[in-house]
Write a structure and sequence with these properties.
- The chain folds into two domains: 119 residues, D-amino Acid Aminotransferase, Chain A, domain 1 (2-Layer Sandwich); 162 residues, Alpha-Beta Barrel (D-amino Acid Aminotransferase, Chain A, domain 2), CATH 3.20.10.10.
- The chain is of the alpha+beta class.
- It is globular and about 55 Å long.
- The longest helix is centred in the C-terminal third of the chain and has 15 residues.
- 43% of the residues are buried.
- Bound molecules: 4'-deoxy-4'-aminopyridoxal-5'-phosphate (PMP).
- 4'-deoxy-4'-aminopyridoxal-5'-phosphate binds next to helix 6.
């Protein structure tokens, strides 16, 4: 793989990027048997480089593993420490961090032998705005996908598992093919679910709505952050089913995720949303969100974990 940093944390050791390799018979490659996280660290003025919501992310990693009955042979505290260590070891100021636990070269059987432990690696590297700087400012054109998000009784979308990302790839490939910046899926009931890698918010008449956890979403940590920040600003938030046309009729739409951060949506299916550019409440949310990292939003919630101290 393209070398993105000097070192990777691999099964308890820090190894050079090029040495962090697995065998082609790795179970996860064949069957998608991995759970992972995407975390960001930001360079803050007061506390230097800080990991954002470290414990919540790695807790979700263990939650995802629990759903699939996977045994991660480290504690949450060890993984939290390793996450900080690998940023420091690579001397990064800001970073995208990718912890992943997966079944390795454990044989060809689909069924995992009882007691099998996962392998774990954590990569950290520099990564800019996922949908582009331009998108953060002016918004993306999104399209509703012809692919539905996984139905609740097929595969659990609440687990951040490798296999789920085949669904995300179909959604985003189709979107790009039709010239959209990102794709949004409906759930099996026909309501808005989520983007390929982002949760969705819509705003009309000052009321903010987001999809409920029952709408086949990954309950995003950025979603939770945004809900908290909006409440702090005094907005009412509804977690409710959102019909496709509600996106067309919204004054503002935005999507959010660790990679995408808070990105405005300026059109859906080619229909202009509101004024067709970033809306005022979306801008407020962005300012408060990025304010956590530039010092203008006080970190009341203890969301920042310093890397260098
Ligand atoms: N939904 C999906 C499918 C995702 O991959 C992500 C990114 N992890 C999100 C939502 C947003 O989650 P978070 O804010 O925790 O990154």
């Amino acid at each position: 793989a393209k070398q993105l940093a000097e070192y990777i944390w691999f099964n308890g050791k820090i190894v050079p990027w090029k040495e962090a390799t697995v065998h082609v018979m790795t179970h996860a490659i064949h069957y998608g048997s991995s759970v992972f996280e995407g975390i960001r660290a930001y360079n803050t003025p007061d506390k230097g480089t800080c990991v954002f919501r470290l414990n919540e992310h790695n807790r979700r990693l263990f939650d995802s593993a629990k759903i699939y009955r996977m045994t991660i042979p480290y504690s949450l505290e060890e993984i939290n420490q390793a996450t900080v260590d690998i940023i420091r070891e690579n001397n990064l100021k800001s970073a995208y961090i990718r912890p992943i636990a997966f079944y390795g070269d454990i044989g060809m059987g689909l069924q995992v032998p009882f007691g099998t432990e996962t392998e774990v690696t954590i990569a950290a590297f520099e990564w800019g705005a996922y949908l582009g700087e331009e998108a953060l400012k002016n918004g993306v054109d999104a399209g509703i996908s012809s692919w539905n998000r996984l139905a609740a009784n097929t595969m659990p979308t609440g687990a951040k598992a490798g296999g789920n990302y085949l669904s995300s790839q179909l959604i985003s490939m189709e979107a790009r093919r039709h010239g959209y910046g990102e794709g949004i899926a409906l759930d099996r009931n026909g309501f808005i679910s989520e983007g390929a890698g982002e949760n969705i918010f819509i705003i009309r008449n000052g009321v903010v709505s987001t999809t409920p956890k029952t709408a086949a979403i990954l309950p995003g940590i950025t979603r939770d952050t945004v809900i908290t920040l909006l409440k702090e600003m005094g907005y009412e938030i509804r977690e409710e089913n959102i019909a496709r046309e509600a996106m067309y009729l919204a004054d503002e739409v935005f999507m959010c995720g660790t990679a995408a951060e808070v990105t405005p949506v300026r059109s859906v299916d080619g229909i202009q949303v509101g004024s067709g550019s970033r809306g005022p409440i979306t801008k407020q949310v962005q300012d408060m969100f990025f304010g956590l990292f530039n010092g203008s939003t006080p970190d009341k919630w203890n969301w920042l974990t310093p890397v260098y101290k």
